[in-house]
Fold each of these.
Amino acid sequence: MEIRHLDLLRDIARRGTLTAVAAATHRTPSALSQQLRTAERELGVKLVEPASRGIRLTAAGQLLAEGAEDILQRIARLQARVEASAGAPRGQVRIGTLPSAGEVLLPPLMDALAATAIQIDLDDFDIAEEDFAAQTLDADIVIGHSLTGDVPTGASGLISTVLTREPLDIALPQDHPLAGRLSLSPEDVIGCDWIGVPHRYPFDSIPVAIEQLTGRSIRRVVRLRDNHLVEALVAQGQGVALLPRFTTRARDGVVLRPLTGVRAERAIVALSRPDRHARLAVREVTKLLVEIGRDLSETHAHDRHHRA
Amino acid sequence: MEIRHLDLLRDIARRGTLTAVAAATHRTPSALSQQLRTAERELGVKLVEPASRGIRLTAAGQLLAEGAEDILQRIARLQARVEASAGAPRGQVRIGTLPSAGEVLLPPLMDALAATAIQIDLDDFDIAEEDFAAQTLDADIVIGHSLTGDVPTGASGLISTVLTREPLDIALPQDHPLAGRLSLSPEDVIGCDWIGVPHRYPFDSIPVAIEQLTGRSIRRVVRLRDNHLVEALVAQGQGVALLPRFTTRARDGVVLRPLTGVRAERAIVALSRPDRHARLAVREVTKLLVEIGRDLSETHAHDRHHRA
DNA sequence: AATCTATATGTAGGCTAACTACATGGAGAT
DNA sequence: ATCTCCATGTAGTTAGCCTACATATAGATT
């Protein structure tokens, strides 16, 4: 029995098809099929059987996959202990991030890692809150966010670390009538033209909350994903929008004002599967992200004082 | 990290030198040395360091070896569960045995295994009681014996199964004055010429007990290892000897008489390391040995009735 | 002191086996 | 009926594990 076989069984259990596992591990389905038959020959037991267009684990395969989950995690922990006892963290760490959070977190991270033996492999995506958890199959650390609390929906069983809590402010054109106010209430902004995000995208939950609170509905003139594009349109006077405070850089023509009366912040969170989090390098990167997140909060706490 | 590396570290911890591990695993020391460096490179940590003529595990190596022990045992148990759930026991089982016990246990065992997918790899040795435990490094099952109790000395941490308790009888020439008696006491036999075994060999503990009990010393005319040779010399009239009842086949010129007043029996025991015992095939063979041992006791219980 | 022996390591080459590319086959979906 | 997705089979390439042999070192032996 080889680790490679345990890995394969676990991945099949997680992803369902050989093709999916092959894509995730940068191999061909043929290679996996051959490995599977090697494992079956060595164990003397059928592990998968055809089902619909794909395959399904047999009872024995299921058993093995569950045991593999446990064993691979123990191996990861052992390896982490060994590294911690006698070595510096090393190796590649795959980070998946939503772009707005990555924009402020990753440059300082790369800076901090320059002197270490840790390499970062980066991926970005812009997805719904409940899909962040699934990304932990591919990445060691997923930087996501939650609008509803400190742990994104669907992240049970994952290690979830809050990096920072970022206020979501109302972005206004500099010459907007409300730009003179220090903070804004739902009633202040319900009548404005809004630049929103697509349905089901995390940020949308706050305009929705405003609508519920005031009993009136918001006029969304356009729905966009990219915050920088939104920012440009706000500056140009198309409407107001909700933008994360840390990511929205000072820019001519746009001002940010805190929104009161609704919980307008997102928790930026790092998610990892337990086995991946066992790696020393992964924990080291998470630790650095927490520090960067803390610095970010502190810096912007000062900013606000200046503006106020 | 590969299972092969965990195995290697564990074996180094157990056997101390690369040469010993190489001999046990049928490889060259060079191969192991290369594997060690591969593991060190992958982990980024030194695992061994030169010490005296050989090597010694570093702190990290020690840690890894201990963790490997645990993980490899879990893998073995998982594999056993899978086999049990969907397959018949399979594969090679290495048995080390002391010849006298193997002589009666193994023929019926081979018979019982003929219909299965279990192959037996056999080794035999004639060693002191406290050395049986060490043999479990090489064999899946060690058939040994204990004169002092049900578990041989040095077998702590091993799985020990009593296969049978075999009386040790006094073997006499057919025409010996004492041959007419149904049983013999220490006083009866203390004055005879004895054919003994070498010092520290298990059987020697009983003549020693007789000497202690009677306060007189036994006259050993010769010390031999091989029971069949002893038997031949008894038949020829050289003296009396202590012989195991089940193994000493009916033979012209020799009679066996029970010895009373001292505990004259040996426990025949199967020993296995826990990780090896996890294999279904190993447990199956152990189970068969227990059955064969029980049959043996019953058969000879009848024998004695006949003779008495 | 010189030699011997046990142990580990380095190098070159052979062989196994894991992988890729490509082709085939089957089962749902359109 | 065709298309699409998924698994499997075949041939050839390649990586890496192992052996054989040579070398280095430290303790044991004479």
Amino acid sequence: MDKPAPRRVTIVDVARHAQVSTTAVSKVLRNAYGASPAMRTKVQQAIAELGYRPSAAARGLRGQTYTIGVMLPELRNLFFADILDGITAQLGDSDYQVLLAPGCNGEKAEARVIDAMIDRSMDGLVLIAPVSAKKRLNEVAGNVPTVVVGRHGSSPNHDSVTDDDIAGAALVVDHLVSLGHRRIAHIEHHETDRVRLTEMPNAQRARGYRDAMIAHGLEDEIDIASTSYTQQGGYLGAQQLLARPVRPTAIFAGADVVALGALEAIAEAGLTVPGDISVAGYDNSALAAFGPISLTSVDQDGRQMGANAARLLVDRIGQRDRRTAQITLSPTLVVRRTTAAR
Amino acid sequence: MDKPAPRRVTIVDVARHAQVSTTAVSKVLRNAYGASPAMRTKVQQAIAELGYRPSAAARGLRGQTYTIGVMLPELRNLFFADILDGITAQLGDSDYQVLLAPGCNGEKAEARVIDAMIDRSMDGLVLIAPVSAKKRLNEVAGNVPTVVVGRHGSSPNHDSVTDDDIAGAALVVDHLVSLGHRRIAHIEHHETDRVRLTEMPNAQRARGYRDAMIAHGLEDEIDIASTSYTQQGGYLGAQQLLARPVRPTAIFAGADVVALGALEAIAEAGLTVPGDISVAGYDNSALAAFGPISLTSVDQDGRQMGANAARLLVDRIGQRDRRTAQITLSPTLVVRRTTAAR
DNA sequence: GGTGATGTGGGTAACGTTTTCCAAATGTTT
DNA sequence: AAACATTTGGAAAACGTTACCCACATCACC
């Protein structure tokens, strides 16, 4: 029953078995300079024979842990899953292992998770749509290589990958205008913090909506319901908009889940989509693509964003003092059955 | 610009600042025996003043890392997110931090992730619906405290938390029979491996379906389309079933996503739900609850499962030699608008 | 006033790597 | 042939904690 707990194979065992020093084994493990091909094969064979695996804890004490931490606000958001796919695909079978914290909402939870990742000596961090103060992000990025995804604004300490949310919103407005719509309303995520007001995607989408409406000479038709990026928020936002003296003929929801809520409210009001009213979302999540829903939506290519983030991060781990980069990707519009000519 | 890289605060700094030994600080950190209240407050103050945070890497080398690893096959499955919620809720603000690997499909990816977690000296593992060989799971559980969620069968090495899938399938069949249905078909996830054939939830659901049909004297009506637990699988499965000489009047899909695919195929065939045909799913995911879909589904209470798994795991970390436990939770049926009397 | 039991605190050796040297051997240039 | 550069390999000191012991003081009890 109680086997004598077979001690884990260590680098010392490997060294002894291969009749070399532990230093030599370490060099082979890290592909470091100073090991001849002969030595390399000899050590690798010993590693295979003993089934040796390096302890990340011990490694972390001196060097790298080969672990990359990903923080995201919400696991249920399918767009974030795409970003993750991109990250893991890019990292492929490099030595890095990706670990993520379960969704963390709010600045406090975010701080806890980031601390936890730093405590665990992660080699790099990918922060997806963080809400923390800019100062805090810069501090973090000063300690550990960091890439921020989905938040606008540049930093001297961390790289950024964002989608061009202003362009995305414009795509929707352009599309609806070309279908003959003029009363185009928007449901936004209510934002109070001043910095986030410029940096968060939701704010950028609202701004893109405004700008595009103005560009089409529709400034008098601008109509925004300010709720939140949730299904509930979409439901309430749409209710508000439908209660207007002059009902909008199209609603641009800032996110797909918001559009779903809006669809629900519209159906409850006895109206049809797109007959009475057109609806567009943002994110092109699996929900939007789902046949019975078939929502017109803006596609952000999360995979691409994730892949870029991972590339930048590995880059920075290798070269911590290089200049920071900001990558902005262009969204595309996927037209489906919830938008139609009026 | 280049600040002199402010060395991290260590336990030694804290000890010096509080004028005690490092041992004393360590004891306070771990709430270990042998520290007076006076010492405790003194050390805690020093910790706060210096902003000290223990290094998980160093801790892992001797003791615990206060990290729990969660492995799940697929991030996009909302049911798994519920389980995770349960885990984190149960762990609350204990000292443990949950980290999870991005979805890993297949035995090979699973092995990699589990190894990675062991390499990182995690204190405990929660494996959600693992497909690895039973032998492998036992090995793993012999090395590190482990709880397996969503896989039937018991083990002397690890605890288990499962939903009673047989009962769940029976709930659906009973419900449909009580509505007057007799030709009730099932879409299952095709399984080949012999062990998994008894242990995986999909196999249990298929078995529960069969058993319940027989219990109602409907053995001649048993009709199974064997595809996969995906939307595509549901689509194809439903197409098969609809092409039967005598069409089923109800379809029990083994998972909500499968039901979605089935709904799509049914709509394409020009039939209505539940007018022409009733459909039920399994998992009661957010998709099922979504108004326009409103799918009758079996609810597993993932949060409850996760909470139980976390409790068992922390238990076992504290007491590694206690007997293993198997917890089985009873599912409930949530009746919505996709099932009706025939 | 011994004799244990109990409470309180610390010294020191692990833990398993990587890093920083250094030495010897080998190759290359003058 | 001397001087120097490069390659190859290893010894030993970190890294920051915890586990294991031991010492001392205090207290209760015969």
